[in-house]
Design a protein that fits this description.
Blueprint lengths: L8 E5 L11 E5 L9 H4 L5 E5 L6 H9 L5 H7 L5 H4 L4 H12 L2 H5 L1 E6 L2 E3 L2 E4 L4 E2 L6 E4 L4 E4 L4 E5 H11 L2 E5 L4 H11 L9 E3 L2 E3 L8
Parallel strand pairs: 1-13
Antiparallel strand pairs: 1-2, 3-11, 4-7, 4-10, 5-6, 8-9, 12-13
Helix pairs in contact: 2-3
C-alpha cells in the first residue's frame, strides 16, 4: 500500500528475548500518525463524487477503476473516514454468507423473520402510513372516511423482513460511498506529505521520518 511509504517510523526499546543489548531498539511504522483530508476539502461536496461499490469490489479495485492506480486504495478509505475495513466495507458474498451462518446458525435461521415494517397506506391521495416504519405483526390503523362518515380500519400493513433482508440492507448501505475527484487527488497527496512528517522539537525527535522513545533501562 503506497500510503505506508509516507507513514513515519518510531523506535522503541526492544523487548525481544534475543536482544543482545539493553540499548537496542525496534523500528516500526507509527500507525498512530494518521493522514486526514483537510477540513475545508472534507466539508465541501464539490471535491467529491458519489460511487456505488459493485459486487465484491475491494478498495484497491475501486482505486484502479477510478484513478488507474490500485495503490490509492487508502484514499478511497480516507475519503469515507473508514478505519476498520472489515466492519465498514461491504463483505464479499462468501464472507457475508459465513457471517450470516455464524450469527443465525442455520439456513432456516437466516430466513427467519427479523422484524416487521409498514406498507404504505393512502386514503384519498393522502399518505396515512409511510412505508418502512418498524411495526408489530398485526399493525393496522384506524382512519376517518368522510364520504361514509365513519371510522374504518385499514388492512393489515405489516410486511415481514427476514434476517437475510435485514443484514443485506445494512451491507448495501455501505456500498454508497464518496470519492475524491480525480482533479483533486494531487492536492490531497500534497497535504498528506505535509502532515505526515514529524516536526522538530521534543526529546523524541530524530528526523522528519523518525522518532525514538526514551529507554529508561539505560538509566536504571
Amino acid at each position: 500500500m503506497q500510503y505506508f511509504r509516507h507513514v513515519p517510523e518510531f523506535d522503541y526499546p526492544s523487548r525481544l528475548k534475543d536482544a543482545k543489548k539493553i540499548s537496542e531498539y525496534t523500528r516500526v511504522k507509527n500507525l498512530f500518525k494518521r493522514a486526514k483530508i483537510a477540513d475545508d476539502i472534507f466539508a465541501d461536496l464539490s471535491y467529491f463524487t458519489k460511487y456505488k461499490i459493485i459486487g465484491d469490489e475491494r478498495p484497491d479495485n475501486v482505486a484502479y477503476k477510478i484513478y488507474g492506480d490500485e495503490t490509492l486504495d487508502w484514499l478511497v478509505l480516507l475519503a469515507n473516514n473508514i478505519i476498520n475495513q472489515t466492519d465498514e466495507w461491504p463483505l464479499s458474498q462468501q464472507s457475508m454468507y459465513n457471517y450470516l451462518l455464524d450469527k443465525y446458525v442455520t439456513d432456516d435461521g437466516i430466513s427467519a423473520i427479523h422484524n416487521y415494517e409498514s406498507e404504505e397506506f393512502k386514503f384519498n391521495g393522502i399518505t396515512l402510513v409511510p412505508a418502512g416504519l418498524t411495526v408489530d405483526k398485526n399493525f393496522r390503523v384506524e382512519y376517518y372516511n368522510a364520504q361514509q362518515e365513519r371510522y374504518e380500519l385499514s388492512p393489515f400493513l405489516a410486511l415481514p423482513v427476514t434476517n437475510y433482508e435485514y443484514e443485506h440492507r445494512k451491507e448495501d448501505a455501505k456500498r454508497n460511498i464518496f470519492l475524491i475527484k480525480q482533479e483533486y487527488v494531487t492536492i490531497v497527496m500534497n497535504d498528506m506529505r505535509k502532515i505526515m512528517p514529524y516536526k522538530k522539537g521534543g526529546d523524541q525527535y530524530v528526523s522528519p521520518t523518525l522518532k525514538r522513545a526514551e529507554n529508561i533501562r539505560l538509566y536504571q
